[in-house]
């Protein structure tokens, strides 16, 4: 009887269990209908919210593997059983609602405390993830469900503090509050919640701001049932606890502490957790070597790491060799973005890695060869080795190719070997990769195969071969791959035409979403077939040789297009179709980036009218005339952050820019007029030079907290520099106000200038003394206050600015001695010094010249040629060179010059000037220097221009100067020199004007011949006897002339510096393409 009773009870339990686990009964099941009060509560809850079609939430749902749809659409008011509604689960015996899953349900609104949702007291599971409860707070009522076991409010955009009532859910086993930094759970609330929810098995608080020391994590040991813990991005800081009672975490299988502010050492107890199989510590501030190595190796139970399936330590600042124990990780190894060094093991027991599916060692300092065994791991499907320092990669290519078992590569789905120093032809075996091939930034050469077996590439989604040396035509089969959505072939040497797309597009078989062919040699016109690539989202064709006329409105046929770059071709883009708006324009709304510089555009494209989401617009270097149309300021009013309209013919006033989030504004080289524009509050850069702005500078500029670059040069602004500049943004790095009509003094305008790199006030009417507050500008590299009315003695104190490279004080009213203190480190970085046209007197101090350490090193920057400036602003300067005023639109870091001409300096020229061996131009003209020309000048082997004219120099011209093989300008006129002029090489190129006013000189090129006594007393010239030098010099002179006539003096001069440094004209050929594509591009 007892046995029968036990059997009956067991059958009843099994029956009840099967009924309880049924999500909802079938329509014909004999179960209770849902309770009327709960049905009413659900309908009220539905009606309190609206539907949300936000693209952001749709994408988030898709990335989580779910489909977003309006689940409450099936909730009807009359005659329906709420237990049959989408997302609703009822108890089959009682009819009470026990489960509610509205994740990805397209819900939007707020959930107040009196929401009818909180009347559902029988709920055991509540999932509202991936909905839009923007600005809504988590109601304390969420803690009033006495039976709740699962609560998921992740990615719901709730804000504020997590209510403590959450800790009052006694049955809770799974809690997920992961958000986007908009929720907080700081101490002591964090400890309260953790201390009460002792039945938790899963806890996910990603991006919930805890803001606490990492020792707080010790409280988690109270959760002995915990199996999964995810605290990514919670702002835990400091070192992890060095010791933990791991017996209290014996069930933990997943631990995620990534994206915090953890530092110090990684404690070994993490690798002692007996059940742990997934460990994520990425994006923290750990440093040093993996000091757990010794502990792991010395402990046999750890050395096996038998349970650890996934180890992720990317971007943690680790360095040193890779520890051997990482090869015991079973499934996934992620160690990218560290500084691991050394070679990968040449041999390994592959059987121990038979289950390894992902290996990511990218972004380290690994060297040596890539071992071929990596390509023989039977389960490996993702391999990332990008951005390392591997060498001799041709061998691994050959090893893989010669091994038939490797060439199948049947499991490898993703291969990423970008920037790994591979060279030679592309190996045939790469076409066996199933899903993604990323080989950018290598030196692969040759052509792509004219044909392949497309069936073997039917799953290929990404092909990135950009930044190599590949050539030939782009083969048509690339556009026939059925799954390919990303094709990057930028910055190679591909040629041919784009008509290869013709047949493919007409068949409409391609899924291409991203095409980047920029930076090649593709020519011809753009075929109409390109507009049939209906899935296309990004099209980049910039910097090719494309030509022809195309209607810009035609791109509206590509309804998914978001990014279009046609810059730097020979195209002419028409902005209208036969004078009328194209019929597709009304539907053309998704564009976020448009780059057309130059494209021969003559007016604002009409198809921009509907671009509400535009973020980047570059129409520079076109032929657009007239005012900016009023409708243009509605383009991307809330989204546009980059606008470049420079080098056009735009006119009118720009009093107020209407774009709310505009950050980068480039309108220079136009004809705008009126007052300077009032800038949006988020402005980072304004480049408005070469316009006709008038009036005073708006004081509202001082309120721009994010401003980094302000360039209003070459306008007609007047008045004083606003006093509020002393409250300027600490972010300001460039202030360029040259060539305006500003007056007044600087006073203490630069008290907050720690980030200021360039200050250019040249060509105004500013006066007074330079303020000592400039000493606050410790990052200052360029200071140009030339052509003003500043006065005072030489500001030697500027020499304490540690990064100062350019100092221009010319044409002011400075006076006194060029003295300096005895400090040894003043002006140590200075390369350009222009003190001309002032009233300095006394001697040229040897102490001052001794300070110019950067001018004493002729090789410091020879291998690192670059211009002063950054991506959005390059410094420029006006200098007198070789007797002419030249405007250097860029300042190469090898330019070194001293100009103290037109002062009242006297005494002898210091011998120490010969130690400034990197000097290229030296101008001491129009002073009262006396004595002889110092022979030490012969040590200035880089010197190109030497002007000593209009002084009181005596004696002979040192014959050793003839060995200065780069000297192109030499002027010693109006002195008291005597004797023969040195002959040979450079001195054979100087005319009579170089020596006029020296009645005692003789010899060529003067008509006065030297007597035998004078000629015989001339010391021999120490000429450079280099057999290639004469050939080089002639080539250089003609090359420079060609560049000067073809490209203008400034570009010619800039190119010439590369030739000077290289000592070989072949550099000119290498510069041909960079000069042609000299325009900086945003992307």
UniProtKB/TrEMBL annotation:
Keywords: Cell membrane, Glycoprotein, Leucine-rich repeat, Membrane, Receptor, Repeat, Signal, Transmembrane, Transmembrane helix. Pfam families: LRR_1 (PF00560), LRR_8 (PF13855), LRRNT_2 (PF08263). The chain crosses the membrane at residues 1038-1060. The keyword Protein biosynthesis does not apply. It comes from the Eukaryota. Residues 1-23 form the signal peptide. This is Leucine-rich repeat-containing N-terminal plant-type domain-containing protein. The keyword Oxidoreductase does not apply. It is a single-pass membrane protein; Single-pass type I membrane protein. Its main location: membrane. Residues 36-91 form the Leucine-rich repeat-containing N-terminal plant-type domain. The lineage of its organism: Eukaryota, Viridiplantae, Streptophyta, Embryophyta, Tracheophyta. Belongs to the RLP family. PROSITE patterns: LRR. It is found in: Cell membrane; Membrane. One of its GO terms (cellular component) is plasma membrane.
């Amino acid at each position: 009887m007892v046995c029968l009773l036990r059997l009956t009870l067991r059958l009843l339990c099994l029956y009840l269990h099967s009924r309880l686990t049924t999500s909802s009964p079938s329509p014909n099941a004999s179960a209770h209908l849902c309770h009327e009060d709960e049905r009413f509560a659900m309908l009220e809850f539905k009606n309190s919210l609206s539907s949300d079609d936000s693209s952001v939430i749709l994408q988030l749902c898709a990335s989580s593997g779910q489909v977003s749809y309006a689940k409450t659409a099936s909730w009807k008011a009359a005659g329906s059983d709420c237990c049959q509604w989408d997302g609703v689960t009822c108890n089959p015996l009682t009819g009470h609602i026990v489960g509610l899953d509205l994740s990805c349900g397209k819900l939007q609104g707020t959930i107040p405390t009196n929401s009818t949702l909180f009347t559902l007291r029988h709920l055991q599971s509540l999932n509202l993830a991936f909905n839009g409860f923007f600005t809504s707070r988590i109601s304390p009522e969420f803690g009033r469900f006495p039976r709740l076991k699962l609560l998921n409010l992740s990615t719901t955009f709730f804000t504020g503090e997590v209510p403590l009532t959450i800790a009052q859910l006694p049955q809770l086993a799974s809690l997920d509050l992961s958000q986007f930094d908009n929720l907080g759970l700081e101490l002591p609330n964090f400890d309260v919640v953790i201390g009460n929810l002792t039945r938790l098995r899963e806890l996910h608080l990603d991006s919930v701001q805890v803001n606490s020391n990492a020792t707080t994590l010790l409280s988690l040991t109270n959760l002995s049932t915990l199996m999964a813990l995810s605290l990514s991005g919670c702002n835990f800081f400091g070192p992890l606890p060095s010791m933990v009672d791991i017996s209290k975490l014996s069930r933990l299988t997943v631990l995620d502490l990534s994206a915090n502010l953890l530092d110090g050492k990684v404690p070994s107890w993490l690798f002692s957790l007996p059940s742990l199989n997934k460990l994520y510590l990425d994006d923290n501030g750990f440093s040093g070597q993996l000091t757990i190595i010794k502990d792991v190796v010395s402990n046999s139970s750890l050395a096996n790491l038998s349970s650890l399936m996934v180890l992720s330590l990317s971007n943690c600042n680790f360095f040193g060799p890779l520890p051997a124990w990482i090869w015991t990780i079973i499934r996934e190894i992620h160690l990218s973005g560290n500084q691991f060094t050394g070679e990968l093991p040449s041999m390994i027991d592959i059987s121990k890695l038979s289950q390894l599916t992902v290996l990511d060692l990218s972004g380290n300092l690994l060297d040596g060869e890539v071992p071929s065994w990596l390509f023989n791991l039977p389960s490996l499907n993702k391999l990332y080795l990008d951005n390392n320092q591997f060498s001799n990669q041709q061998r691994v290519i050959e090893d893989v190719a010669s091994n038939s078992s490797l060439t199948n590569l049947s499991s490898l789905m993703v291969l990423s070997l970008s920037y790994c120093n591979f060279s030679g032809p592309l190996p045939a075996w790469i076409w066996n990769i199933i899903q993604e091939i990323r080989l950018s930034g290598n030196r692969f050469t040759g052509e792509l195969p004219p044909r392949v077996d497309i069936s073997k590439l039917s799953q290929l989604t990404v092909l990135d071969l950009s930044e190599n040396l590949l050539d030939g035509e782009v083969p048509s089969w690339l556009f026939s791959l059925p799954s390919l959505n990303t094709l990057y072939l930028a910055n190679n040497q591909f040629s041919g035409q784009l008509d290869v797309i013709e047949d493919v597009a007409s068949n409409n078989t391609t899924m291409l979403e991203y095409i980047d062919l920029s930076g090649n040699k593709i020519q011809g016109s753009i075929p109409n077939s390109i507009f049939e690539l209906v899935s296309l989202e990004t099209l980049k064709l910039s910097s090719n040789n494309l030509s022809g006329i195309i209607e810009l409105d035609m791109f509206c046929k590509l309804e998914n297009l978001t990014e279009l770059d046609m810059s730097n071709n020979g195209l002419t883009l028409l902005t209208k179709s036969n004078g009328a708006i194209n019929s597709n324009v009304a539907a053309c709304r998704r564009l976020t980036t448009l780059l057309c510089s130059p494209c021969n555009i003559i007016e604002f494209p009409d198809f921009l009218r509907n671009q509400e989401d535009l973020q980047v617009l570059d129409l520079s270097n076109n032929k657009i005339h007239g005012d900016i149309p009023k409708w243009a300021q509605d383009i991307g009013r809330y989204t546009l952050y980059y606008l470049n309209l420079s080098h056009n013919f735009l006119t009118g006033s720009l009093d107020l820019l209407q774009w709310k989030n505009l950050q980068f504004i480039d309108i220079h080289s136009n004809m705008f007029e009126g007052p300077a524009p009032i800038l949006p509050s988020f402005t980072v850069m304004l480049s408005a030079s070469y316009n006709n702005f008038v009036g005073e500078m708006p004081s509202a500029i001082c309120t721009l907290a994010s401003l980094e670059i302000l360039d209003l040069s070459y306008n007609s602004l007047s008045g004083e520099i606003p006093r509020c500049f002393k409250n300027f943004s600490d972010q300001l790095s460039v202030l360029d106000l040259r060539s305006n009509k500003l007056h007044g003094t600087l006073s203490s305008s630069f008290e907050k200038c720690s980030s200021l790199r360039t200050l250019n006030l040249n060509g105004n009417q500013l006066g007074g003394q330079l303020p000592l507050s400039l000493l606050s500008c410790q990052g200052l590299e360029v200071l140009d206050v030339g052509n003003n009315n500043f006065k005072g003695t030489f500001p030697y104190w500027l020499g304490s600015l540690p990064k100062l490279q350019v100092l221009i004080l010319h044409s002011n009213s400075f006076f006194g001695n060029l003295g300096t203190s005895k400090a040894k480190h003043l002006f140590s970085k200075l390369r350009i010094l222009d003190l001309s046209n002032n009233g300095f007197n006394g001697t040229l101090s040897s102490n001052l010249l001794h300070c110019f350490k950067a001018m004493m090193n002729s090789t410091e920057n020879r291998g690192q040629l670059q211009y002063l400036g950054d991506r959005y602003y390059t410094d420029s300067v006006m200098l007198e060179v070789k007797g002419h005023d030249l405007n250097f639109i860029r300042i190469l870091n090898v330019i070194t010059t001293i100009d103290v001409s037109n002062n009242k300096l006297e005494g002898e020229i210091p011998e120490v000037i010969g130690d400034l061996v990197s000097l290229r131009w030296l101008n001491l003209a129009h002073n009262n220097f006396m004595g002889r020309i110092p022979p030490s000048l012969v040590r200035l082997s880089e010197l190109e221009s030497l002007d000593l004219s209009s002084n009181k120099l005596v004696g002979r011209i040192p014959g050793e100067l003839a060995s200065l093989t780069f000297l192109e300008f030499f002027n010693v006129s109006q002195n008291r020199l005597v004797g023969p002029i040195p002959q040979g090489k450079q001195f054979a190129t100087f005319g009579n004007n170089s020596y006029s006013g020296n009645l005692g000189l003789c010899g060529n090129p003067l008509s006065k011949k030297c007597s035998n006594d004078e000629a015989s007393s001339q010391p021999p010239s120490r000429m450079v006897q280099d057999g290639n030098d004469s050939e080089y010099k002639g080539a250089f002179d003609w090359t420079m002339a060609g560049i000067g006539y073809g490209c203008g003096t400034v570009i010619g001069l800039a190119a010439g510096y590369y030739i000077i440094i290289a000592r070989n004209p072949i550099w000119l050929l290498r510069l041909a393409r960079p000069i042609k594509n000299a325009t900086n591009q945003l992307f």
